[in-house]
Amino acid sequence: MSTLVPIGEFSLMTNLSRKALRIYHELGLLEPAEVDQHNGYRYYATDQIGTAQLIRRFRDLGMGIPEVKAVLAAPDEDSRNALLTAHLHRMEAHLRQTADTVAALRDLLSPHPAAVDVSFQTFDALPAWSISSAVGSDDLGAWFADSLDRLITAARRKAIPVTGPLGGVFERELVSDEFGRMTLFVPTPAVDPPPGVAAVTIPGGDYAVLTHHGSHHEADRAYGELGRYVSEQVIGAPGLIRERYLPIDPAADALDVRFGAPESRTEICWPVVSRA
To answer: DNA-binding as a keyword (predicted)?
Structure first.
């Protein structure tokens, strides 16, 4: 049988401070069972202990208030578990990113930096299917993942001939001004793309190229080394930055790319003056 207890005792039962309980009340997350109309004192039912403990655990997991509300309001166990699983996946992704950042920091502190292996390539104009958008840097990750998935799905469904690795070109303002246009593309001579995908020609040009191994989150080091090389050699040229996303297995399907894996490979291509 549930009984009413004052906020102080409920605080002790749940290991939630009075302040936290008041905040959760104001936010509509955990409302008291009864509030004294004369002095405003809060009373909680003992059958609210389980809910309070869930809230505490969810907050310990880094859940925001809206997420906790959604979980508590879930209509059934499957819906609640789906929300919790989605949050755990986000936490795991954050932990992977943290591990990548720690590894990159250790590399930066290394007294023996790896040698930079820059090559030069000339790319011809390239027929391709593409998805393009002006995007802000805060939204780039989500846009990139969604657009790449749509592009790969379209290519597989149409079974088009793919003539090279997946790639992207972007305006420098996407980095410098945190907003710019990026185009993702799959090289193909096919001319009948589905809605939302365009048949385009990717311009050619001369590039200094450096291959980055690992998560794209750590690509800033490769960009720094390549940019330093181009600047010191005084060979830089205006134009879009180009990336080529290589399959992990060189003999595999060109569409089989896995971003974030340690064995991922991205060719970073910086425009340079012609060496002809």
So the answer is: yes
Q: What percent of the chain stands above pLDDT 70? A: 95
Please tell me the pTM assigned to this model. 0.66
Q: Which domains does the chain have, with CATH numbers?
A: 4-73 (1.10.1660.10), 119-271 (3.20.80.10)
Interatomic CA distance for residues 175 and 137, integer angstroms? 7
- Beta-bridged to residue 133, according to DSSP, are 182
Q: Among 212, 265, 207, 271, which residue's Cα sits nearest to residue 237?
A: 271
* Nearest Cα residue to 245 out of 227, 265, 215: 265
Q: What is the DSSP letter of 272?
A: B
Compute the radius of gyration of the chain from its Cα atoms.
27
pLDDT category, 104, cuts 50, 70, 90? low
**Terminus-to-terminus CA distance in the chain, angstroms?**
87
- Give residue-wise pLDDT tens across range 157-213: 999 999 999 999 999 999 989 999 999 999 999 888 999 999 999 999 999 999 998
Burial of 245 (0-12, 13-18, 19+ CB in 10 A): buried
> Three-state DSSP class for 246?
strand
